[in-house]
Structure formats: structure tokens, C-alpha cells
Specification:
The complex is a heterodimer of chains A (112) and B (113). Chain A has strands at 4-7, 10-13, 19-25, 31-37, 43-49, 56-57, 64-68, 74-78, 87-94, 102-103, 107-111. Chain A is mostly beta strands. In chain A, the strands form 2 sheets. In chain A, strands 2, 4, 5, 6, 9, 10 and 11 form a 7-stranded mixed sheet that branches. A 4-stranded antiparallel sheet of chain A has the order 1-3-8-7, with no helix packed on it. In chain B, the strands form 3 sheets. In chain B, strands 2, 5, 6, 10, 11 and 12 form a 6-stranded mixed sheet that branches. A 4-stranded antiparallel sheet of chain B has the order 3-9-8-7, with no helix packed on it. Chain B starts with a strand and ends with a strand.
Chain lengths: 112, 113
């Protein structure tokens, strides 16, 4: 009963390096999301995918790109990492956009 | 743009005390409302949701929340907390299109045994 699986769980990068965070869900959900969680700020939406083949910007998309590879997988890419992107990243999925979201365990990313 | 405010950043209670966490949102249209909980070291889990109907919503683990439209509020309550309720609680609001779930800053609850 995996739900939403994120890899890796932890990563340390140097400024300027690139990295892709992977997310997969096994619930046959249509919609998927990427958030970042910073202390005192809750979760902020980076990008979302309402359905396979579509992606849209959220509240804080700058410095990120996404790919909805298929219905199960939704990856987040940092092309040139910056210290301001140090955060905990959560992937989530839901049956439809309005429905409650199911979250992965998060990726703790530190950029030096 | 919609926003969500959680007034209490940190709350410390003794077991059996009553809990009320405040949540206010700003958005003029129809909203869907959620409370999520994040236990230490775990991912967010849904506590309860409100879409329409009875404004008093019951969730898991004895939690409930009341939607007061005139006050743009969706406060979370529990009559008697337990040590196992120690967690961070997030209020979240979705517009009716559902394409932008906005979270509050979270409230860290510590329950002393």
C-alpha cells in the first residue's frame, strides 16, 4: 500500500547543480502536485498537473520545471540550484483537483 | 489571491484539555476547506474536509471543525486532547475550481502527558 512515493528522501547539492526529484503514485489519481514546505509558511504550491499531459504553475514556480511523465509519475527539476531552494519538498496526488490530496513522505533538500 | 491565516503558531496543552485552533481565509467565492495533520517525521494526512452542507464537520480521531461563512473561519476543535495529538496542524483552502490549494502557516501543538 505505497500511496505516493518520493525519491530521494535526502539530498545535498552545491549551488548551480541540477537535480530531479521523482514522485510516483499508485492510486490511479488524475491530479498531482509539488509543494515546498518552509518553517512558518506552510506548504506552497510550486506546480501542479490536473491530468496526464497538462502542467500549470502554482504560487512559487520560479527556478523549477516539471514533467508529467505518465499518469503515475510527476517529476520536479531544479536546473541550477540556489540556497533559497533549501526546503522540504512534498509531492501529492488527488483523484480530481478539488478532492483531498494524498502526500508523500517528502524530500529534504539542502543547497550549499 | 486567496490566503489562509492560522493565528496560533505554537500551542502547549496538558492531556484532557480542550483544543481550538483558529483558521481564517480570504477569498470571496465558494471554497472547499481542509485540515491536515503532520505527525513528527511523517507526511501530511487529512483530518477533515468541508465542501458543502452541514457546517459542522467531524473528522478522524475525535476532531471537528465549524465553517462560519460570515467570519471566513474554519476553526478546528477537540474536546479532550491526548499526548498522541502532538503534531503540526495545517488549515487549507481550495477555490471551487480546485486548482490552487493554499495552506496556512501551521500550528505546532504539543500535548504534555
Amino acid at each position: 500500500n505505497a500511496g505516493v512515493t518520493q525519491t530521494p528522501k535526502f539530498q545535498v547539492l552545491k549551488t548551480g547543480q541540477s537535480m530531479t526529484l521523482q514522485c510516483a503514485q499508485d492510486m490511479n489519481h488524475n491530479s498531482m502536485y509539488w509543494y515546498r514546505q518552509d518553517p512558518g509558511m506552510g506548504l506552497r504550491l510550486i506546480y501542479y498537473s490536473a491530468s496526464e499531459g497538462t502542467t500549470d504553475k502554482g504560487e512559487v514556480p520560479n527556478g523549477y520545471n516539471v514533467s508529467r511523465l505518465n499518469k503515475r509519475e510527476f517529476s520536479l527539476r531544479l536546473e541550477s540550484a540556489a540556497p533559497s531552494q533549501t526546503s522540504v519538498y512534498f509531492c501529492a496526488s488527488s483523484d480530481e483537483l478539488k478532492q483531498p490530496q494524498h502526500f508523500g513522505d517528502g524530500t529534504r533538500l539542502s543547497i550549499l | 489571491a486567496q490566503s489562509v491565516s492560522q493565528h496560533n503558531h505554537h500551542v502547549i496543552l496538558s492531556e484532557a484539555a480542550s483544543l481550538e485552533l483558529g483558521c481564517n481565509y480570504s477569498y470571496g467565492g465558494t471554497v472547499n476547506l481542509f485540515w491536515y495533520v503532520q505527525y513528527p517525521g511523517q507526511h501530511l494526512q487529512l483530518l477533515l474536509k468541508y465542501f458543502s452542507g452541514d457546517p459542522l464537520v467531524k473528522g478522524i480521531k475525535g476532531f471537528e471543525a465549524e465553517f462560519i461563512k460570515s467570519k471566513f473561519s474554519f476553526n478546528l476543535r477537540k474536546p479532550s486532547v491526548q499526548w498522541s495529538d502532538t503534531a503540526e496542524y495545517f488549515c487549507a483552502v481550495n477555490n471551487n475550481a480546485g486548482n490552487m490549494l493554499t495552506f496556512g502557516g501551521g500550528t505546532r501543538l504539543m500535548v504534555k502527558p
